[in-house]
Every structure is written in C-alpha cells, then in structure tokens.
Design a protein that fits this description.
It is a single chain. By secondary structure, this protein is an all-alpha fold. The chain has a domain at 40-145. 58% of the residues lie in helices and 0% in strands. It contains six helices and no strands. It has helices spanning 17-31, 38-63, 70-84, 95-106, 111-146, 164-168. Helix 2 packs across helix 5 and helix 3 (70-84) packs antiparallel against helix 4. It is extended, with a radius of gyration of 26 Å. The N and C termini lie far apart (71 Å). 13% of the residues are buried.
C-alpha cells in the first residue's frame, strides 16, 4: 500500500443560523437586561402590571357580586391568568372563561359566577386598551394621508441593525458579534 500524505481540512468558519441567533440573544441580554440599574426598573414595572391586573380582577369580581375574600380572589386570578395564556382561543376568549368556571366551582363560588367574573374582567381590560388602539389607528391614518414620500417615514429597511453603542457613537461592546458590523452607522446625538 503506497504512502500518502494526510490531507488538511480547512477549518469551518461559517456559523450556523441558530448559533448566530443564540449569540445575538446573548448579546442583547448582556446589553439590555444585565446592565446595572435595569432590574429595579423592570421589577417595578412588572409589579405595577401585576397590581393592575389584580385590581381589575377584584373590581370585576365585586361588580359581579362575588364576596370571596381577597386572598382567594388573587389565587383564582393566577389560575385564570395562566389559562388566558393558552393559545387555543379566539381573541383570548374561551380557555379563560372555562377555567374560571372550573376554578370558581372548585372554590365553592359557583361556575356561573366564575364565567361572569372572567367575562367582565375581559371586557374591562378590552375597554382599558381601547385608547391605545385609537392612537394606533389615528397614526395609521395620518401616515396614509401623508403618502410614502414624507420625510418622517422610512423609505426602506435600515442597512444594518444598530446597537445603542452605534447610536451613541461608541465602539461595540466587548464580546458582541462583529465589531465592524456597525462601523458604517453615523453617530447620533
């Protein structure tokens, strides 16, 4: 058998799409959530949202005539909110009311009372977001009236995504993706 020289294999430098996505997510987490001072703000915002949902549910329960103690209503709310996240519904309607009927019946408050509270809660939340829908609709109408040539509207996709470092004119953060990827972005501010 004749002797042959071993072949050298060039290293693979291409990174798979999932690996690039994982690196991008990790970089976003480092630059967003892991920045000092973000967690207190994020925690406060989350607590305010939970308090708002809780207050709305308690108000809906009281308006519906439910006399259960506050602690019991909060426990029922957690079960109902988990059910509301099930993606087998029509606009969020269905699982929330079904689980509310079951949970209220299991708590001895009656299935009909659970459906009433869940429906009233959903209606109150829908009414609460209606002003935002009006603002979005008004903005869409204004954009349509201005036409595509208006200077305030984008004329196409950005050439490359821009990080906060690029917006501020700073070099890319260490450990990020390619530090030259944003070199064409002009400094703003």
């Amino acid at each position: 058998m004749p002797y042959t020289t071993p072949r050298t294999v060039a290293p693979v430098t291409a990174i798979s799409r999932p690996a690039r996505a994982a690196r991008a997510v990790a970089a976003d987490l480092r630059r967003g959530l892991l920045v000092p001072g973000v967690w207190p703000q994020l925690t406060l915002a989350s607590l305010l949202v939970v308090a708002g949902h809780t207050a709305t549910f308690v108000i809906a329960a009281r308006v519906a005539g439910c006399t259960a103690p506050l602690g019991e209503l909060i426990a029922l709310l957690m079960v109902v909110q988990i059910a509301a996240g099930i993606p087998l519904s029509v606009g969020g309607w269905g699982p929330r009311e079904g689980i509310a009927a079951w949970a209220f019946a299991a708590a001895g408050l009656g299935a009909a009372n659970g459906v009433t509270v869940a429906t009233l809660y959903a209606v109150i939340m829908l009414v609460a977001v209606t002003p935002g829908a009006g603002l979005l609709l008004g903005d869409a109408i204004r954009r349509r009236r201005r036409g595509p040539g208006h200077s305030g509207e984008s004329r196409g996709p950005d050439r490359a995504p821009r990080t906060m470092e690029a917006v501020r004119g700073l070099p890319a953060a260490p450990g990020g993706s390619d530090p030259t990827a944003y070199s064409h972005a002009p400094a703003v501010g």
